[in-house]
Structure formats: structure tokens, C-alpha cells
Amino acid sequence: MRHLPRVSSTSIISASDENYKDAVAAAVDMLRAGEVVALPTETVYGLAGNVFDPAAVAKIFAVKERPSFDPLIVHVARREDLPRVAIVPEDIQPTVEKLLNAFWPGPLTLILPKHPDVPDLVTSGLDTVAVRQSASKIFRAIGKELGEPLAAPSANRFGRISPTSAYAVQQELDDRIPLIVDGGACAEGLESTIIQITAGEKRPTITILRPGPVTKEMLQNFGKVERPKRPHDGSAPSAPGMLPSHYAPRTPLLLIEDWEEFRPEPGKKYGLLSYTGEPGKGYVSRYRWSIVEALSPGNGKLPEAALRLFHLLRKLDNAGLDYIVAEPVSEVGLGVAVMDRLRRAAAVH
Ligand code: TXA
Ligand code: MG
User: Fold this and answer.
1) What is the pLDDT of residues 3-25, one digit of tens each?
2) Is the CB of 41 inside a 6 Å radius of any atom of ligand 1?
3) Is residue 222 within 8 Å of residue 99, measured between CB atoms?
4) Which ligand sits nearest to residue 73's alpha carbon?
5) Quick one: pLDDT at residue 236?
6) Residue 243 pLDDT greater than 80, yes or no
7) Fold of 11-78+120-182
């Protein structure tokens, strides 16, 4: 039988060296026309639109099925563009300067008072805006060429796993967007760290709203680092969008922190997301798993685990399992961000 190729309205253009200029031009043309396009960043793929074009911003929300109360991150191609979207208060100016010198371009997002020109839709009506400068060369080249900052949330449907490859974007948003720029696999694999800075008498306080590749340990030189106090009354979380149910596969995920908690249902298929995949380590040999995937095969290195987390969650989600069981990783350094994502993915079901 002859299979006809599937026709999709979404084009994928490679950003390889030979094709780099064409990829930049194709993305910029679309963005100028008010379209939204999926672009690689060093963390995860983003769904980008011109921040000063409210119709493009509205499209981002529509394509993702994202509720309008969940604000977007704004990406500046050049540090000089920061004052176009945000106002840096004088009392935290020296700290901001030091943090940007240390971590930009890179996976650190700052929450700052918003510039009045940024449409309210971008910030969901908040008077603050989330800003970062991506380390991805192609992402910045497109932003520079366009000459405008880009609003870009992760290029997944709301509540789903963030995409770390062009293929994963296609799975999420095929037929919903005109263009995906394929820059290969993302270097970090986890979304940026989001922080808020407040001036203190002696040292500023840095509140980590979302843990990510820039860890608590890396931020400690710049101020007193805190996690936000969790609301225990069921009220809205202090940062919108920091909802517990996020990054979720369709297959229920069980984060088993203590093996004694595992009560398998007979006849169901369980797959394991292991840390090292080594027999005798973690939960690998404790059950007859249908599949075992290792975050960091053999040695157990957290940066590798962070890099592979969303890729493997997606793979296990497509494996026809009844449940995905995840082993905990130690909550130091990048392990904090990995456990944050696993807890959110497990919270959904
Ligand atoms: O690495 C990343 O940050 C990726 C890439 C594409 O840059 N982007 C990303 O965007 O993860 P998104 O939209 O999936 O997550 C942005 C988070 C949301 O949880 C949102 O609620 C929060 O940032 N956020 C945005 N603006 C905010 C604000 N003004 N105050 C507090 N949180 C904010
Ligand atoms: Mg997201």
C-alpha cells in the first residue's frame, strides 16, 4: 500500500551553518507579518512573537491554549534593549548589573517593573515583566534582525511538557503555526531560572520563583537567596503560572520518593524514569518495568539529567504505558529544578 505523505501547514527550516541566513530571514519575515514562530533557545524551544504587536501576542496565547492570566517572558536580543521593556529600580540597579554581567546571555529571567509600552496582554495586567536574553545565537540573530524584543513562552500546549527539539515542537503545535526553526537539541533542556530581586539593608534578597539552570548556589554571591513562601490557604501562587500542575505527560506520572509507597496495580504497564539506569541502583531491579529510561546513564550527573528530562518524559509518554514512575534525584544544584519539574508533572493526576 502506498502511503501519502502527511500534509502539514507547518514548515520546518534548519538553522545549520549553510542554511543559517535563510532561517533568520524566513523567521523575520513571518514575525514582521505578525505571525508567531517556534525558535530554539538554549533552555527549551520558544513560541515567539513581536512583543509590541498585541495581535501576535494574542496568537501566542491562542496557539498554546494558554490562559490569559499566565504572563509571557520577554526576550531581548541585546542588553541595551532592556530599558525598552523594563525599568530597573535604582535600589537594585547594582545587583541587576552584576547578575547580568554574570549570567546574560543565558538562562536567567528577571522580574522587573514593566515599561508602559509593553502591552498588558504580555504581562497579564501585572505591573512587572519577566525578561531574559537567550544565549542561543540563532534566537538573538532573529531578534536583532527584527529589531524588536520577542515574547516567547515555551512552545508547548498549556500544561504540557516543554519541547527540547524541533520534533517535540512539531508534536505539540503541528498545523497551528507556520514555521519552526530547527536549531537541534537544546543545550540546557530545562526552562530558565526566574528571580525577583528586592533591596535589603545589607544585602539584596533574591527570590527564586522558578528553579532552573542558574542554581541557588550560583546566585548566593549576589544576595540572600530564598524560595517564595508557599500559600497554604489555596490562594493564587505568588507568581502567576507557577501552578503545581505543569510540564505534564498524558500518562500519569508517579514520583515515588520512598520505595515503600509503590503499590503497583496488577496487569498495568509501568515504565521507570531512573537516574542512572544501573541495575542495583535506585529502583531499576526492584520491579519488572516495561521500560527503563536513564536520565544520566551509568554515572548520574545532574546537568545531563536536566538536559534529558523533558526528552525522556516525552519518550515514555509515547510508549503506551499505564504509568510512568520517576525516581527522585538529590535536591542540590540542578537537582532542585529537576525535582521541581517532576513534582509538577506528578501533581496533575
Ligand atoms: O527558558 C525559558 O524561560 C523559556 C524559553 C522559551 O525562554 N520560556 C518559558 O516561558 O519557560 P513560559 O511562558 O513557559 O514560562 C514563563 C513563566 C510562567 O510561569 C509565568 O507565569 C512566569 O514566567 N512569569 C512571566 N511573567 C511574570 C511576572 N511578571 N511575574 C511573575 N512570573 C512571571
Ligand atoms: Mg512553559
Assistant:
1) 666 678 999 999 999 999 999 99
2) yes
3) yes
4) 1
5) 45
6) no
7) DHBP synthase (3.90.870)
